[in-house]
Design goal:
By secondary structure, this protein is an all-alpha fold. The protein has one domain: Four Helix Bundle (Hemerythrin (Met), subunit A) (Up-down Bundle), CATH 1.20.120. 66% of the residues lie in helices and 0% in strands. Helix 1 runs antiparallel to helix 2. The longest helix is centred in the N-terminal third of the chain and has 34 residues. It is flat, with a radius of gyration of 19 Å.
């Protein structure tokens, strides 16, 4: 998904911007806290004081939280660039309620629905063709 130059979001009122900033702050704090807990448990496991044999689980969890932190940073940069709230596919404005529900979203509801449908069709095709469960 690429942002096109010159596409800007509709002006938001200050209260809307403040609410979205607060939501991003909350999400970032939660993701950083969860990442720190995973890393702490992983460190304990390596030192022999915690559960062992879970290296892959720790790495996968840590990567997920790190990705969420990266998405939040990307959303903040889009707010500064005034491209936040613009669908990266169709360039229409993303509904404010959707941004409140998913502050890091890049897609409007319509494009997200199309994306989800295509993903589901690919998964069904993989299962039919190869017996794979994706």
């Amino acid at each position: 998904m690429q942002f096109r130059l010159g596409v800007k979001m509709k002006p938001m009122i200050n209260a809307q911007k403040a609410r979205l900033h607060a939501l991003l702050d909350e999400q970032e704090e939660a993701a950083r806290g969860a990442l720190n807990r995973v890393l702490s448990v992983h460190s304990e496991a390596q030192s022999g004081s915690g559960p062992g044999g879970l290296e892959w689980d720790y790495a996968e969890q840590a990567a997920g939280y790190a990705l969420e932190i990266e998405r939040i940073a990307h959303a903040r940069s889009r707010l500064i660039a005034r491209t936040y709230g613009v669908c990266s596919e169709c360039l229409t404005d993303i509904a404010f309620d959707r941004l409140v529900a998913q502050p890091t979203t890049l897609l409007c509801e319509s494009c997200q629905s199309r994306f989800d449908q295509m993903k589901q069709l690919r998964q069904q095709s993989a299962v039919r063709e190869h017996g794979l469960h994706v």
